[in-house]
Structure formats: structure tokens, C-alpha cells
Amino acid sequence: MTRELMSDAELDRLLALATRPPPPEGAEARLMARLAAAEAGANVVAFRPRPRRILPWLSALPLAASLACGIYLGASGAADSYLPAAADTVAAMDDGGASGLDDVLAISEGNAS
User: Fold this and answer.
1) For residue 89, which of 15, 19, 39, 69 sits 20 to 30 Å off, Cα-Cα?
2) Which residue, 39, 36, 40, is CA-closest to 28?
3) Rounded to whole angstroms, how far apart are CA atoms 113 and 106?
4) Total Cβ atoms within 10 A of residue 7
5) Could you tell me the pLDDT band of residue 94, with boundaries at 50, 70 and 90?
6) Distance (Å, rounded) from C-alpha 91 to C-alpha 87?
7) 56 — phi, psi (to 5°)?
8) What is the pLDDT of residues 54-90, one digit of tens each?
9) Per-residue DSSP letters for 39-51?
10) Pairwise pLDDT comparison (45 vs 86), residue with the higher score
11) 35-44 residue pLDDT tens
12) Buried (b) or exposed (e) across 73-104, using 16+ Cβ within 10 A?
């Protein structure tokens, strides 16, 4: 048995012919009873407040101290003897070549090579 798919328009026409079913008997009374129970607080769960930490920033002190020591040692040069000799030249750049901006300017002026 094969089923053919309906287009949206065919489905809309089919749904337009359908009638709305009546609500079940007593549905409105049950809904109103549930709303009244919810307003009365019958389903509210009370949570105990968590105990407050005395010093919440206390755990951040060692991190702040190590950051301050690192900044001091890096700025004063006291830690240079611990670094490899090639650490200063790792980020060296070749300034001899043209940058991308120079190429764009040359092309826009008509000096494209």
C-alpha cells in the first residue's frame, strides 16, 4: 500500500472541512480547580537558602598573587635567565616585504604587476 504526499494547499483544504470537537464533560470545572489549587500554593516547593560563604574572594587571592608576581618578574627582567635564548626572536617579523594594504593601494592606482 503506497501513500501519496499531500501539498500544503490540499492539507489546508482538508483541515478546513474538519469540525472542532466539543470539550470533554467537566473539563472547565477541572481546569478551574487546578487554577485554584495553584493559586493556593499547593504545588510550591520551598528551598532552603544556601549557607553564605564568609569570604567568597578568598579563593582568588593565590591567583591574583601569582599574576602580580609574573608581571613584576617579567617587567623587571629578573626571570630572563630562566628563558631560552631564542624566546626573544620567536615573534620576529620580516619587514622587507610589502603588506597586503600596499598591494591593494597599488592595484587601485593601476600599478598592478
Assistant:
1) 69
2) 36
3) 9
4) 8
5) low
6) 8
7) -70, -25
8) 677 788 888 999 999 989 988 888 877 777 766 555 5
9) HTTTT--PPPPPP
10) 45
11) 887 777 655 6
12) eeeeeeeeeeeeeeeeeeeeeeeeeeeeeeee
Local structure of residue 1 (DSSP, 8 states):
-
Give the span between the Cα atoms of 113 and 101, in whole angstroms: 15
Spell out the alpha helix ranges (H) of the chain. 8-17, 27-39, 61-76, 100-108
Rounded-to-integer distance, Cα 50 and Cα 56, Å: 13
- Rounded to whole angstroms, the Cα distance separating 102 from 98 reads 6
Residue that the C-alpha cell 472541512 belongs to: 17
